[in-house]
Every structure is written in structure tokens, then in C-alpha cells.
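note to self: dont lose this again. the chain is below, predicted strucutre after it. 86 aa total, dont forget to put it in the shared folder this time
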Amino acid sequence: MLHYDMIRYEIMYLKTLNRIFNTDHSLLCSTYETPDDFRRLISQILERHFHGVQDRIKIARKTLKEWADLQLIDKDYFDCFKGRYT
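---
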């Protein structure tokens, strides 16, 4: 069973890619059972968009990480916000 800490970055990467490319991979992702499944999809999207040009893919991965860091909610903050800590 997947949990937050296992795939939080991958989910943010996919949300960002979906916004940029105006796509939706949520139905496909709902069938995934491991973090590697998500990583493979991210790689496929980047390979397809950048036509396999590794330099551009590397830059895109770095940019995705930076954007995800800006959007990601820390789990402790999330738990506190949801009232799980008293």
C-alpha cells in the first residue's frame, strides 16, 4: 500500500506536468502500486515531450524538483493543519 512519504514528490511532478502539458494521468496513476511505477510514467512523459534529448530531460527533471519543492506541503505541517497533533 502506497503512502504519502513514498510518492509525494512523484505526485507533485505529475501534477506539474499535467498542468504544463494540459494532460491528466490520474486514472492511470490510480492503478499504480509502487513508486517506480510513478517514476516510469514521469520518465515516459519527459522522453516523449523532449524527444529523448537527455540534456533537456535532465534540465526538466531539475526544474520539476524545484517546482515541487515550492508546492510540497510538509507532512508534519499537514498533520498539524488537519488537527492530528494536539
